[in-house]
Amino acid sequence: MHSSFQLARKFIGYYFNAKNSKGHGIHSPFVFDFVKNVLNDKRSYPCYSKIEEKRKQLLNDNTVIAVEDFGAGSAVIPFKTRKVKAIAASSLKHKKFAQLLYRIAKYYQPKNIVELGTSFGISTSYLASASSATTVYTMEGAASIASIAQQTFDKLDLNNVELLRGSFDKILPALFEQLEYINLLFVDGNHRRDATLKYFYEALKKSKPSSIFIFDDIHWSIEMEEAWQEIKSHPSVSLTIDLFFIGIVFFSRDFKVKQDFAIRF
Length: 265
Fold this sequence. Notes:
Helix content is 44%, strand content 17%. It contains 10 helices and 10 strands. Helix 9 (193-204) links the parallel strand 6 and strand 7. Helix 3 runs antiparallel to helix 6 (122-129).
């Protein structure tokens, strides 16, 4: 992964080169609509406080659990036994981006959502809260973490989440076989280039013009930046939006020219 200094330097470069978050200079009607109605939606939805209260509880939980790591590993806590609050501090998606996931799901109303990387279920809860008619399929490799995530869903009365436990490589083929399409994909479980691209290409087979793919930590490492560049350049991808910490992919054939945007957020 990039060092804190490298990541900060990259963020500064992104910030000064990205379009401003007011939508000025964005000539794509679709992207302008996204910026206005999704990115800049400042309303505080009822689920926000409920989910953030659960996050607060996790950040103060001193319980020690044994963790099996199926991803790229933790550069912050490289131990097999970890405190819940330490895992929460390093792995939970920041409120700003977790709430953006909610707004994306609320605005575009996907019938199903596939999330790779549940952690303690905070981002999952935001995605599932957008609509009770949406089914969220979420995957977590570590059994102890998955159990806490299920407690999160139960506490928040989220009945539209299907938590799949185990290795992505074992779970994904069966899930993708089951689904006719993937409407919204959020990849946040393995920060390796090859794994990220593998998930992209497998999910691509189940995409359609209205599908949306979201990739976490696209600038986390050189590997992830390479994966993001390959995803952006794929001929099926019509539009990408780089928010530095996440990258959003659209496939609509209404775009006459492939477009790539970096937008401050």
